[in-house]
Structures are given as C-alpha cells and as structure tokens.
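Researcher: Batch entry, complex prediction.
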Amino acid sequence: MVRTRFAPSPTGYMHLGNLRSALYTFLFARANNGKFILRIEDTDRERYVEGAVDVIYRTLKSIGMDWDEGPDIGGDYGPYVQSERKDLYLPYAKELVKKKKAYYCFCTEEELQQRRDEAAARGETFKYDKHCLHLSEEEVQARLDAGMPYVIRQNVPEHGEASFDDVLYGHIAVDCSDLDDMILIKADGMPTYNFANVIDDHTMGITHVMRGNEYLSSTPKYNLLYDAFGWEKPVYIHMTPIMRDATHKLSKRDGDAYFEDYINKGYLKEAIVNYVALLGWNPGDEREFFTIDELIKAFSVEGMSKSPAIFDVNKLTWMNAEYIRRLTPEQFTEYALPYYEKAGVKTDHTDVLARILQPRTEVFTQIPEMVDFLAALPDYDVELFTNKKSKTNPEVAAKVLDMAIAALEALPDWEEQQIHDTLLNLAAANEMKNGTMLWPVRIAMAGKQVTPGGAIEIAVLLGRDESLRRLKAGREKLN
Ligand code: GLU
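Model: Structure tokens for the complex:
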C-alpha cells in the first residue's frame, strides 16, 4: 500500500512550489490507490506563523486535495502535528546514543562560535569537530545529572560514502567527511526537522517521500539514520524547483510566489492548479487542460521532469482566460460580483455584463477598469464622436443624438430588443449605416472609445434614466 505525505512547515502562506509538491504527492497517492497524509512540521517555533495551518487546510481543501489522515481528522498513526509528537523523538535519539550512532553534546553557543571563527580565520568552513563524542560515559552522565543543557548529535562516520537512489535524480552519493554531525534533538527538547522527518516517515509507514530537491543533499544523512535503526527506507522522489528565470528560484521575496496572491489577483484556483501541475510534469501527449480528477488519471512519475520549470505568468494568464471562458454565465457572475462592486457598478442585468465581459476577461481584476464608466460617466472630448469607419463626426453625432433621444424617450419599455429595433430602424429610415447611429450613442453613454459591449447593451445596463441623461449631456456638448 502506497503511503505518501505532504509535510508543510506552517511558516506562512502557501508557496506555489509547496502547492505543487502537495499536488504531485496527492496525485501519486491517488493514482496508486494509496493514502495521502498531511503532517504539520512545526518544530521550528521561531518560524511558526499564527494562522498558517489554516491556510494550508483551506488551500488544499479548496483544490479538492483531501487527505486520508491528518491533524484534523486523525488516523492510526497520529498525532499528525510534530509538536504534539514531541515526547516520541527523545527515546529514539537515546536508542541511537546507545548504538553509538549519536551522542550528547554540551558545547555552548559561545564555544561553538569561537571554533567557527577560528575555522573561518583558517579559511575553512566549520564542521562540528566531534568534541563531545570523546567524553567518557561517566562524564556525560555527570553532566546530565547536573542538569547541563545538551543537544543530541548524529555520529556520522568520518570516512566512507553515504548514498541513496532517487527516482528522478538517480544515484546521489556524498562523502561522509563532508557531512556535519547534525543536531537531532535541540536544547529545548524539540527534534530538528532532520531527525523528525526520519522518525515520522518511518513511524507513519510512509512508503514514498516526495519533496523539494533542497533535501536531496541531506537525504544520505537521513539514510544513515535508517541504517542505524535497521529500518527499511522509503522510496525518494525529489522534485525540481519552480524557477523565476534560468538562474533564480521562484522565491517568496518575489511577492508573486503564493497561491493566495494569485487568487487575490483574480485567477481561478482551477487554472492555477492546472498550470502548476504542468510545471514539472507532462501527460505524455498534447493535452493541456485538466481537472483534478483528470490529473489523477493522467499522473505518473514517468511524466515528471528532471529539469526545473520556469514559471511564466503570461501562460498562466492565458490558461486562466480559457478557464473563465468555460464558466457558465452564472458562475462568471459569482466570481465577478465583487469586482463590479469595487467599480461601483450596480445592475440587475448581470447576464448582459457576463455576456460582454466573459469573452474578454483574462483575470477578474481587469473588470473594474472595464466597467467603471457604467458607474460614472468619464469626462470626454467631443472628438470621440469622430469615427471614419462609422462615418460620423460631431456634426453628424448632433443629428443622430437628437433622433435617438426622441425615439428612445418614446419607448414603452426599456428592453434590449426594443432598444435594438428602435435604433436600427432609425438608421435604416435615415439611410445611415448602423455604425453611424450606434457610434455616437455609445460614445455619449460611455464617454470612452473602447468599451466592452455596444450601445444597446450599455443602454440596458445604464437603464432608461441614466441613458437618456447621458445622451442629452452628450448632445449638449455638441452645441
Ligand atoms: N517541512 C518541510 C518543508 O516544509 C518538508 C520537507 C519534507 O517533505 O520532508 O520544507
């Protein structure tokens, strides 16, 4: 039975890289009829951000990535929050001490700093010098009995090689002489990530570890721990990073790296997930559009890329526009309403708004500037009435507006078909191009040259009173 886990640290919002890790891990579990486990790695209390766990829950849930075991729903391997597992780690560390694969270290921060400085002066990078490994058992016990603060360090062999095989990256080997005796248990009694991930992955029965490739170089050390315990190692699949360009990772500092940023910028979550899924994986055919269920069917590790993908916001925007076009008008309206409100636009005719906006909206945040003329007539120049193709200019416009105002004022109902027929009949009766009639009417009602929708739709949206008020104001301008 495949068991995978997503193990985020609650240190802030959900980075797109994290989202993608979660997604691939989830897809892998589902594609293999396995279990997807959520584990919160909160042992680094200094980086803990209040509310971050909720962001994780909310984001995964909103995308449809349901977990089978996790902090909120429990499971057979709980608790699923590392800080709640705190007491579980020390006995394992002590077991390693007994096996001489780990040792107590009493070096103070000042002592370590001094040795770090000395190493720097020699032009070397400091590696813990195994100072406390050489304390006698009695000495160690005496210090523990005296209540001296300690950490527990891994005892990495001084020579030889540590290695593992990654599904994507192949054989990864490091010289033990390059490895530091990393801390397993910190002075506050908390495990480090380096220790906790091993203990948790083993005790939770994780079969496949999928995570970012920043852990690639540490994994050999983790495997030394598995070996020390005599535990079976999981299969490792380290994932390529998402890049901003050829040399830079998409980083938190760019401000454009978070899932919620894109939601706030008017992107649909389905489009973001679809796009992110394709950053580092491809289905092996030409398909580009996937729902979560389709991703589950199509996903395989073989389709995962070994080279980093570059995040292209234009491609995401294109994809988002495609998703927007596929919404029903009612769904479109639901998403667009807050943006109408932002622009101060109030109308009962959201169907008309959807009709004119949906084909041209790439991201919802573009909506306010497309519709704000409906809320307030912009100040405009009479030169806007000039349009060659529509054969109109201020003089023609004055006549057209006189006729249009008279005809529209006489309308019994302010209704789209009636407005349409009235204006077009008027054009025909006066042997005008439709454009000659519609251009001045639209300019007077919108006060701008480029608008979503035409004169008739705008008239419906403004309503009778406001339409006529604007038409008359336009006519005034032409005196
Ligand atoms: N807590 C780690 C992180 O957020 C997870 C690493 C892992 O999946 O092992 O980067």
